[in-house]
């Protein structure tokens, strides 16, 4: 494993090996004296098929960054370039309680304009991928928290997204369920070849999952450090190498929190 302090870099275009590029992106909320600078000239790149985790103190702009990549908001300055379609997954599964598991997943297909005749088989394929085959007719309230998140993941995959943008997707789960979901997400990532940009407050989770970890500065958000994770997969969250990397990233985060606290 290695850590590198980054200077802002420009990525002027997305080439065949890149899914996401932010080039000197800033985002302000409000105007005048009440304006809040959430992101400040941030530059980063995510390669095709890469699993990148963003970590940082609360309020450092992680979710704002995901919203910009998803196209849900627009940068105040700079350039956000994305190659391919993005699918979103949040901390809460946000399933429609009046729809069955299958209908929740099918909704994403219907919104994409997939013909009715193709939707049923595709729903079954996706539920099998997340290991929920046999639950197509269940209601969300009949599922555990981890199972609801699997349905949410199937729904995100139903968007045929090239890029999965994941905002604390396992933050509300207990430790054991979260560990199981790590295994499932890694398996699905390998099977689908998706590119994942994953926001988390859990440094150990980032060390368990990521190809690279990007540490964001306290507000306004910039890339402060990059940790390239060269630990062999599959990884265990309690493994010594994962623990050692967790310590390195946590120490870097402490410096950011201290800097913010003395501003």
Describe this structure as you would to a colleague.
There is one protein chain. This protein is α/β, with parallel strands linked by helices. The protein folds into 2 domains: 2-84 and 162-261, Rossmann fold, CATH 3.40.50; 95-161, no CATH class. Helices cover 36% and strands 24% of the residues. The protein is built from 7 helices and 10 strands. It has helices spanning 62-70, 101-111, 116-129, 145-158, 175-192, 203-209, 240-261; strands at 2-5, 18-29, 36-47, 51-55, 77-82, 86-89, 163-167, 195-199, 212-216, 223-228. A hairpin with a 6-residue loop joins strand 2 (18-29) and strand 3. It starts with a strand and ends with a helix.
Q: Output the CATH topology of the largest domain.
A: Rossmann fold
SSE string, helices as H and strands as E: EEEEHEEHHHEHEHEEH
Task: Determine the CATH superfamily of the largest domain.
Answer: P-loop containing nucleotide triphosphate hydrolases
- In the sheet with the most strands, the strands line up as 1-10-9-4-8-7-6
CATH class of the largest domain: Alpha Beta
Q: How many strands appear in the DSSP assignment?
A: 10
Q: For the report, how would you describe the main beta sheet?
A: 7 strands, mixed
How many H/I helices? Answer: 7
Specify the helix fraction band: 25-40%
Gyration radius over CA: 19 Å
Q: Can you name the CATH architecture of the largest domain? A: 3-Layer(aba) Sandwich
Shape summary: globular
Strand-residue proportion: 15-25%
Distance between the termini: 31 Å
Based on secondary structure, the structural category is alpha/beta
Give the integer mean of the pLDDT values: 87
Structural domain count: 2
Low-confidence stretches: 2-13
């Amino acid at each position: 494993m290695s850590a590198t302090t980054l200077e802002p870099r420009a990525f002027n275009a997305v080439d065949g090996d890149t899914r996401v590029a932010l080039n000197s992106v800033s985002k302000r909320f409000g105007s005048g004296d009440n304006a809040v600078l959430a992101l400040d000239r941030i530059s980063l790149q995510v390669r095709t098929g890469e699993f990148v985790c963003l970590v940082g103190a609360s309020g450092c702009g992680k979710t704002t960054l995901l919203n910009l990549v998803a196209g849900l908001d627009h940068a105040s300055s700079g350039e956000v370039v994305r190659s391919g379609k993005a699918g979103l997954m949040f901390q809460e599964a946000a399933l429609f309680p009046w729809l069955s598991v299958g209908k929740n997943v099918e909704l994403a297909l219907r919104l994409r304009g997939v013909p009715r005749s193709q939707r049923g088989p595709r729903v079954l394929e996706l539920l099998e991928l997340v290991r929920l085959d046999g639950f197509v007719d269940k209601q969300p309230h009949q599922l555990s928290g981890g199972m609801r998140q699997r349905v949410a993941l199937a729904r995100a995959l139903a968007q045929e997204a090239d890029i999965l943008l994941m905002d604390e997707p396992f933050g509300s789960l207990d430790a054991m369920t979260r560990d199981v979901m790590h295994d499932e997400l890694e398996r699905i990532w390998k099977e689908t070849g998706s590119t994942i940009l994953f926001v988390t407050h859990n440094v150990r989770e980032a060390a368990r999952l990521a190809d690279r970890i990007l540490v964001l500065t306290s507000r306004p958000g910039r890339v402060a450090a990059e940790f390239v994770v060269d630990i062999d997969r599959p990884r265990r969250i309690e493994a010594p190498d994962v623990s050692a990397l967790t310590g390195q990233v946590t120490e870097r985060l402490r410096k950011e929190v201290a800097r913010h606290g003395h501003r």
